[in-house]
Amino acid sequence: MFHRVFVHVRQPSFGLGLNALLNLGTTRIIVPASSTVRCFNCTGCRQRSSESLDAFRAREEKKEQDYAKQQQQQQTNDQNAKDFTAQTEFSSTSDGEEERTKEMILEAALLFVRSHGWSKQAIANGAEAINYPSVSHGLFPRGGIELVHYFYKQCNLKLIEHLKQQTADVEKVANPSDFARQAIEYRLRMLEPYLKHWPQALGLMTLPPNAPHSLANLLTLVDDICYYAGDRSVDFNWYTRRIGLACIYKTTELYMLQDNSAGFERTWKFLERRMEEASMVHEFLVKSEDATHQLQSAVGSAFTTARNILGLNFNRR
């Protein structure tokens, strides 16, 4: 028994034999009921009439998902290409331009220390803030410690400018001890905006790879204070004043981290007491000849090494 089936057939570009058997338009074809009817769509792809609607929908959705994945992968590849191009541009700059760029990024990164600490994330945000790509943090392979060292260096430079102004119109400082105390207080107040994250900075500075540079920063700091306080001595006093002042600075810095008093009043009183005690320590060291000889040799080498590490000389004026 045969069933009547109406099939609409479009002219295919590849079926030359069908032109002779079928006419364009609607053609009546009688086929057995057990036969499978095939049709040709506009793209030339054959689809079984027995395919369900759900199967067709699933196949089309899979195509859309595959296309979306391809688009996402393409966007990722384009972004990676942009980052690589930006990094290549940085590497092609001269050393002087690269240093200026790094300083600009680090200076901008200080604004993000309060939210991200002394980290690569702060550096990346600083780069974006001055219209550089976030991948610029690759210029700082050592991470947050480079931001710490930059901050320490800038604070020391600001202190030097302050001390120069304080001694510009005087031939000799009237009270060197009080002058040094005020200098330490001035320098420590620079930490106030970053005090919440300063323990993290101290932790980074104490790591073995970072310790030499960190120590050099500290020794240079106290050396500058002593110099502008009027210390031009070439005897043992040169060493005892500097090593004593370094100890006072670090102990006061640690005390400041735990001080909750208004305006850090207790910290400055603590500093005054340490300065008073320093004179007694100085007298003890001077009277001991063995301590004088050993300490003079050790401290002298330490200060020379510190200057060499930072690339500084002793010409301050």
Structure keywords:
mainly alpha, elongated, two-stranded antiparallel sheet, disordered N terminus, 4 strands, 317 residues
Describe this structure in words.
The strands form 2 sheets. The chain has a two-stranded antiparallel sheet. A two-stranded antiparallel ribbon has the order 3-4. 19% of the residues are buried. It starts with a strand and ends in a 7-residue tail after the last helix. The protein contains 12 helices and 4 strands, in the order βαβββααααααααααα. α3 packs across α6 and α9 crosses α10. It is elongated and about 100 Å long. The chain is mainly alpha-helical.
Gist of the model:
By secondary structure, this protein is mainly alpha-helical. 64% of the residues lie in helices and 7% in strands. The N and C termini lie far apart (115 Å).
